[in-house]
């Protein structure tokens, strides 16, 4: 179906995985990109700080890339921008709050002045040569979030971005269902929709009801109230502020991202706090406990977060005090449950009171449940559908949901990252695959930690390592120093004295045997030493530490 | 309150943690122990296979320990027996199924013939010199489970063990509420009760309703049905068998623990499968797919389990086939959610259908919810209460639940592992603490991996390691070989050539400076090399690998 009038949709990340959302849309000489997120390392990615998408494909087509369009300011949609813009400096488009958060990031990476950030408002349409990109207000767990419609010469592609349908949002700005309905009436070629919560029946509860629960909880609080939530959830923040003001409390923000984002949100008018109601963490001591609210990071139990440091008494400024009430206003992201539990247990142990999801409705998801998804499908009734945002199981279930609503399976495309969906006004099919992948960020290094390094780290983590070192004199075929053995992460020194002594004897014997036979090639010596050591240690301990034989020659 | 007639209750594990349940009860010259479990390593315990309790206290009082009484056959209640019995060989008491599972374990450790296992039936009372130990039938997610009442001269202690209240259990053996009520009427000194699900309102749904769901699902299955569940959940197994037989399917068991436990359960008459209905995994190919059920391990997504191996095509005998239906009949234990998700996603990707908790009611917890706990408290109305089995937050909430039912806070004891609760007929208080702890099992090693080793493994996992080795001649104050640098888990070799070259130069310079100044003490040389290297690497990479300087002298 090759045709220069076709539109190509190429997810470069985010399909069949959580996070790292980035999708390219291509028509003739124009490529636009929606979102540019990171994902967080899974437990196998030892030492990796974060994961960004491999954008080789965009770099190979850099002259055609016209801009990156951001749906909202969450890390899994904006987090890669500082890294990607260093490689591919193209204009970025987003709403005011989204770009406010992006600006902060680019500043930290010292590249803000090199970047072109274009502020848009919901409703705006950016006109490129052939493509038009329309921002459509939606509702999500961050303010100023948008869906995006791409108007192409062969039809409209509607990408919901992350969304839920909240009819009573805190800022009063409801999702622009009218515009979406209008697009649907005029015909949408392809719908791409958020699949995160497709397994959940019913409808999300409105954000406002969390506010009601919080207000009730605040009304009974006798000491300080410390609420941990996502720093980006400005609406949640606003509701905590409202409950605090109602009960005569001052508000302090704690934790770097909480301080950063609350400041951006206040500056830009997304977070409203009456004059004189905010205080700094340093000022908390000047107020009676029952007049203080602290909004903090750490809702995921992150060990270095403000909340965890309070719980484990390592926070420099904040200590647990009598009658403190802690509220975890968030769900643990999969994988974080144990960390969150640790913090909750520790707070209880220290005598504090803690309220969390299992006990009260203090959190609601930002992603549409089944009935919300059905509404969008029904309004849009697209020609083709592609589920996005979610693990494979979610994409699969979203495809089933669409079929229950009457779509034919052949019109649904469940893509993998890197696959190319090509659309004409008559047909759609997967026509190829481009290079994609994950790039690991570790410290200053971007991409210098790969599978070999990670495999070694995993191996080291499991059984530790053992270095054998010996100096030999080539000419005389003799050992002149060593062999010495040094271990880390293997066994306790005191427990292993006999073991290491015997190991040394074995290595020395192996080495002497080789030298006696005039074997002097270091790689043979090393291989033999390693082999005999592995065998011995496994028999004795059932462990396989990394063995590092080093031969020095003089 | 020291008095030789006092009873002491000493949890040696299992309080404020999940697993590793073991509690000592002491009266005069008698000590009895309830349960002897393991816990599984958390993510910080790199390379550790399992965790057993430190029983120093029991070893120091070994002549007084009269026996270990087991409530039921779950790992967190029996798993340490092979290790503990090697140190402290005392009689073990338990019901038939429980001891059947224990026997298997002791056989694997080659110590069965050295151990004394005493089979009891629910209702039996074991009479020791002063203490009587009564087994009382309860219901749980494993058959033949018991609560235990200890009759002491100063009163009765009732330990519920793990339990829920199922009025229609699969084996028809309901919890002996009559006996519990009877004990309560005559006065119970101390109640110790399962806190696992105290945060959940209402009542567990009965196991039988899972059977109804499974039967409905089986009625629609067109190919093989593969059900993953806990090997020890004989009742679940029975229901899967019943549904299979109803729809003309043969049953095969896959996975080592599944094969072991199903065999024990059949032998002992706890699992009933009609003649000719079981087949081996090797025979599956001889039957049409729609006549096959496979009951397998792997409900927690364990990477080496049968289910994961099927999903990732590494199972030697079982492959995914068209129309396969996979059922995950279990909840992910906290921390395992991502692993389970991986397997589910992979099964979907390979075209199979998968049903799990988010979609259908295919699992129910084995631990009492709030209303069940209230029933037990109401029947027993003990003088003192001690919440057990659960993290700290659960113990705390169980204590609150007891207070809502009318107990006074002063009569509730929320202990930590190692604390001693001393009871007389007049009062109860925490009077001391004994030595307790965790012992790590890694391969053959029991206790040879401790905090230093784990700290090193964590460090290695984060940033890898870098060995610097040099040979020096003492007399001439000169370097005669090296310095060489070898890294593992740090950076890609090809990316780091320049880095490592510069690092070598720095080390050589450092070493030469020292030698020039006649500094020859190896610990000074090593410290200096390490320090300069750390500084250099952190500046360049923002990483801190373990640095291992080795100086050989000739």
Structure notes:
Two copies of one chain form a homodimer. The first copy, chain A, is of the alpha/beta class. Chain A folds into three domains: 7-202 and 365-441, Metallo-beta-lactamase, Chain A (4-Layer Sandwich), CATH 3.60.15; 207-355, 3-Layer(aba) Sandwich (Rossmann fold), CATH 3.40.50; 451-553, Ubiquitin-like (UB roll) (Roll). The first copy, chain A, is 32% helix and 24% strand. The first copy, chain A, is built from 15 helices and 25 strands. Chain A has helices spanning 56-60, 75-78, 81-87, 96-108, 177-186, 207-220, 234-246, 256-267, 306-311, 337-349, 370-380, 392-404, 451-463, 493-516, 522-541; strands at residues 7-13, 22-27, 30-34, 50-53, 65-69, 92-95, 117-120, 125-127, 132-137, 146-152, 155-159, 190-194, 225-228, 250-254, 292-296, 325-328, 353-355, 384-388, 419-423, 428-433, 438-442, 445-446, 465-473, 478-488, 546-553. In chain A, the strands form five sheets. Chain A has an eight-stranded mixed β-sheet with strand order 7-6-5-3-2-1-19-20. In chain A, a hairpin with a 4-residue loop joins strand 8 and strand 9. In chain A, helix 4 crosses helix 8 (256-267) and helix 6 packs parallel to helix 7. Chain A is globular, with a radius of gyration of 29 Å. The termini of chain A are far apart. The interface between A and B is large, with 71 and 71 residues. Chains A, B: Residues 19-214 form the Metallo-beta-lactamase domain. Chains A, B: Homodimer, may be a subunit of the RNA degradosome. Chains A, B: Its cofactor is Ca(2+); Zn(2+). Chains A, B: It comes from Clostridium magnum DSM 2767. Chains A, B: One of its GO terms (molecular function) is zinc ion binding.
